[in-house]
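Why does this matter for the project? Reviewers at the last site visit asked to see concrete outputs rather than summary tables. In response, this paragraph embeds two records directly. Each consists of the residue sequence and, immediately after it, the corresponding structure tokens. Nothing has been edited or filtered.
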Amino acid sequence: MIENKSFHEIVCILLLISWLIVILCTSTVLFIILRCWHPHCRSVINLHVCNSCFSLFFFAITYSIQIPSFIQQIYINGSPPNTLFCQITACLSVFSTGLVAHSCIAQAISQFFITVLYKHKYLLTFRITWIIIIISWLINVIIAVGMFISPYAYQYDSESHFCTLTAHHFPTAISIGILFAFGPMLMLMILYVIILRYTIYQTRINPNSQSTLRVRRSKRVFQNIILTFNLYSIAGIPYILCLIMNRINEAPWQLYSIQVLAFSFTAAIHSIFIFIMNKKVKEILFAKLTGQPIVAKGTRRQNQVVPNAVCYTHRIHSLKTVT
């Protein structure tokens, strides 16, 4: 019993640290982009960055609201929380997890439009970007609410002391794995193969053209998206192990807490990655802290394309941005 308590205390501390990192990094990036949107950071890529940051922020909040209940289970009475509260928080947790996964897909689709379908100018507008993001949100709402069809989906997990999608019921658990992991990964790989083939084709035709350089830059950005999604896929290994072990016999109780910890750590790494790769955000933050003037949008430095940069301004045949 004492060993269980010590283990959960360590898990609680690590979870709080990871969620604090997520909240600090994402809120900083969101605040700077939204505050400096029109003068410095107005771009389609920034809109996707805001979507990713908000998804990560919401992910940290939906899990952190369960900490009081988590502490109560360890130190006070050990009784499970209210059933309605547990189901709502578990549904929100699944919804926020799906938002993080599908935000990568939304960004990959826009990058595919920029790279391959750039001649269709309407696909590169803010309107289409908003439609992609809204559709991804609606899909996650349908998935999260649709899990209520199964009475075993959202339960209190006595092993981890969290309300989440149970790993004890195989059909519902594997369906979420397909919708949030295997399906998006397959779509990412298909889009990447198309971009890779297009890059090879453009390089053979004219290796020094502006179009070829644009495709190569987009390929690097896409590789960063796949790398980020692969991190979440690796974080899902403990969850998959729980499913497999429960089908054979019974998974170790520590594995249920490790699966929550793995996703939280990955979200923290993703948040740090977004902040570090966004050079314009760091420039604006440094300028605000030191009182220096911010480099105006439209300068040569600003128009350089950096993978996953915040103020990525993409010029494609004098495209006019449509709001």
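We now turn to the second protein, recorded in exactly the same manner.
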Amino acid sequence: MAALVGKLSTNAWSRVVFGISNHTDNSSGDPFVGYERKTYVATPVDDVSVFFLAIILGPWQVLIDKAPESFLWLFSCGALVNNAESFANLRVSVAHHGISATIAFNAIRFQPSFSAHLLLAFCELVLIQRVSIQQAFPDMLGQSYKLGRHSDVLLLLKHDTNSVRVFKYCWTHSLLRPWGNFLPLQCPDCGLVDAWTSANHQKEYSFECKGENCRKGFVFSAPANSKVLVPGKTRISCWIEIPL
């Protein structure tokens, strides 16, 4: 590894891209690093030398430090970002390693194949056309509505040496994912399938079960400070950006 990194570091790379596909512990969000006594072992994402990103990125740090931009794609299940402690550790760690932008997904059982169009758009817009990733991201998402039906997307942008800015992107559909929220196909109270009558009042979506004597309902409002993105927008669906 040291010889490979040493050879690569002799070139002046303008961009360095890392992609990590890994399982995570469903309860803690910690990524798995291997086996111990025939049992999977997970370790926290943090900036301590024995922790996950330090193990993976540590040998490549010289390339990250030299390149003007570096990108990290985390093709991992959603526990990594859904668990508050794990997500906090991730933010600290990517800031510590100086990663310019990190992309992660929150689907509980994330399927990386759904991100193919997003990744191809990244290669075209960011790597080839050299558009900044924050500027390019709405257009990247505009080509990825099938990904939106599977997972939200999180973009972590380097702010300074100690922190990152975080944006969450949700695909919304007025009948399927109102304001990016899960709407069950079946009423959880009476069991009726295709259960909902809907209404929209001042961008607030209301759903009520059509079942006889069932009054189960849901109300969904726009997330605070959310912004509708134009690329990929249709009459009933779009991506929205939510600063975290």
